[in-house]
Amino acid sequence: MMSLMDAVAVVETLDVSDQRKLRSLLSEALYKKQPVHKISRGEQFDALVASGLVVKIDDPDAVVLSDQLGKVRKKLCTYLSRRNESEPCVDENGEPYTIPSGASFVAAASLSGPPSLSIVFPEDEITALLDLHGVNRCRGWKP
Questions:
Q1: Which whole-number Å values give the CA distances from 19 to 73, 81, 111, 131, 132, in the listed order?
Q2: C-alpha dihedral (112, 93, 83, 107), degrees to nearest 10
Q3: Beta bridge partners of residue 98, listed in sequence order
Q4: Measured torsion, CA atoms of residues 99, 100, 104, 110, in degrees rounded to the nearest 10
Q5: Alpha-carbon distance 64 to 72, whole Å?
Q6: For the segment 72-81, what is each residue's pLDDT rounded down to a tens digit?
Q7: Is 63 helix (H, G, I), strand (E, B) or coil?
Q8: What residues does 65 pair with on adjacent strands?
Q9: Which of 26, 63, 85, 120 could be cross-linked to 101 through a Cys-Cys bond (beta carbons 3.0 to 4.6 Å apart)?
């Protein structure tokens, strides 16, 4: 079985489009209870299969998540959401913008200047892994 740290290390070798495919497969398996993904015409899973995170099966042509992911599937899905996905927001003037998925707003008052607004992820092992790999999109975020 892979640890979350090992799974994230493999994920970080993939390009963002393959990371998004993996997140989609994880979501299908975890939340829609569809462990088998039938490959549609034009879909490519070669990099995910080569990484060992996904296994190709003949059903007639499908992929499933590797058994090596074991119990880290949900945390890996959360990692990929925070890393690559965004949520829509609207500012005080009604202008739309996006923030990283799973982030929360934090306001800070200052005695020497105007208050500031920032976003943070929960302090957990997933955020620690985002920091470790230098992909925490909350760091340095400005509205």
A1: 13, 10, 43, 17, 17
A2: 30
A3: 88
A4: -60
A5: 15
A6: 999 999 999 9
A7: strand
A8: 54
A9: 85
